[in-house]
């Protein structure tokens, strides 16, 4: 086992090396819109998981996740050798690429929050013009001071 701080530093370094290599050195057009979002390294520093997202060419086009995964799989050996040269550790970690679902989950959460806000606004609009179902004051009136004092006399012994 290694120090967790060292594992985090190595993970950050691996993510930087992989992102730079994809951007500047690997000329695969399938990797043009790939962004490295996070990297995790196991406690023994032998395996690294690299999380990535794929953006579309513009806002209207869907990202091509399958071709990006195939491009990353093909470039895995080159990327691992770049990581080995750039980190200087005794054993170069194996790289595993996983599509990051956080942006999709965040987008879904934003849609759910927008629906909840719309429902809250609808309830507020209907509550503004609502009338109470029963009397205006549904609670009982408090007793008068002089009323029924003989039945609730506190000075009588039990």
Explain what this protein looks like in three dimensions.
The protein has 158 residues and is of the alpha+beta class. Helix content is 45%, strand content 14%. The chain contains four helices and three strands. The protein has helices at residues 4-25, 65-74, 76-87, 102-128; strands at 34-41, 47-54, 94-99. A three-stranded mixed beta sheet has the order 1-2-3, with helices on one face. It starts with a helix and ends in a 30-residue tail after the last helix.
Please tally the β strands and state the result: 3
Unreliable residue stretches: none
Write down the oligomeric state: single chain
Q: Helix count?
A: 4
Q: Nearest-angstrom radius of gyration?
A: 32 Å
Overall mean pLDDT stands at: 86
- SSE-based structural type: alpha+beta
Output the strand order for the largest sheet.
1-2-3
- State the shape: elongated
Q: What is the chain-wise order of helices and strands?
A: HEEHHEH
For the terminal residues, how far apart are their CA atoms? Answer: 75 Å
Task: Note the main sheet.
Answer: 3 strands, mixed
Strand percentage lies at 5-15%
What proportion of the residues is helical, as a percent range? 40-55%
Give me a quick take on this structure:
This protein has 158 residues and is α+β, with helices and mostly antiparallel strands.
Descriptive labels:
single chain; 14% strand; elongated; 158 residues; three-stranded mixed β-sheet; alpha+beta
Break the fold down into its secondary structure elements and pairings.
Elements: H1 4-25, E1 34-41, E2 47-54, H2 65-74, H3 76-87, E3 94-99, H4 102-128
Helix pairs in contact: 1-3
């Amino acid at each position: 086992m290694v120090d967790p701080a060292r594992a985090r530093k190595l993970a950050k370094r691996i993510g930087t090396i992989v992102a730079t290599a994809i951007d500047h050195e690997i000329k695969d057009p399938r990797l043009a819109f790939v962004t490295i979002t996070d990297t995790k390294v196991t406690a023994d520093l032998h395996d690294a998981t690299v999380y990535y997202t794929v953006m579309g060419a513009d806002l209207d086009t869907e990202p091509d996740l399958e071709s990006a995964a195939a491009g990353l799989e093909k470039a895995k050996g080159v990327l691992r050798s770049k990581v080995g040269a750039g980190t200087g550790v005794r054993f170069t970690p194996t790289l595993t690429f996983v599509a990051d679902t956080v942006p999709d989950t965040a987008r879904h959460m934003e849609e759910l929050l927008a629906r909840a806000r719309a429902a809250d606004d609808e309830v507020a609009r209907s509550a503004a013009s609502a009338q109470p179902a029963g009397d205006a004051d549904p609670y009982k009136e408090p007793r008068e001071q002089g009323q029924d004092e003989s039945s609730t006399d506190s000075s009588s012994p039990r």
